[in-house]
Amino acid sequence: MKKFKVIVAVVFISVLGSSCDSHTYDEIGGYVENPSFEKNIKPLFDSQCTTCHFQGNTSQGGYNEYYDYNTIRESVEFGSTIRDIDTTKTMPKGGAPLSKAKIKLILQWKNTGFQP
Predict the structure, then answer these.
(1) Which alpha helices (DSSP H) does the chain contain, by range?
(2) What gap in Å lies between CA 97 and CA 90, rounded to an integer?
(3) Helices then strands (H, E): number in the chain?
(4) Contact, 91 vs 84, CB < 8 A?
(5) Whole-prediction pTM value?
(6) What's the pLDDT band for 28 if we cut at 50, 70, 90?
(7) Could you say which of 23, 32, 75, 91 has the lowest number of CB atoms within 10 Å?
(8) Whole-angstrom Cα distance, residue 32 to residue 4?
(9) Residues 72, 69: Cα–Cα separation, whole Å
(10) Number of C-alpha atoms within 13 angstroms, CB side, residue 72?
């Protein structure tokens, strides 16, 4: 009987451990209460957006430039950034949509007053 309980426990733990998706932490974790531009937002935009939205990009035609605090803040506050990454999911072009955690991070930065 003891052997049976051990086998059941091992099987249960194995199933439990393998049932988590690799993106679970990204979807539910990583919450930042007071995100700042330098620590949280700029690295996100640098890794997800500046392939096309870099300073001086005229080859793509009409792209907003995201290279400093002011350009990124204006786009989040007055532009279509939130719509494009969250509602229509048209950005980033050619890439996977941003995770819910990353979108929440940008929204939290906006909601807490765009900390530098």
Answers:
(1) 2-18, 24-28, 42-48, 69-78, 81-82, 100-111
(2) 8
(3) 6, 0
(4) yes
(5) 0.70
(6) low
(7) 23
(8) 45
(9) 5
(10) 25
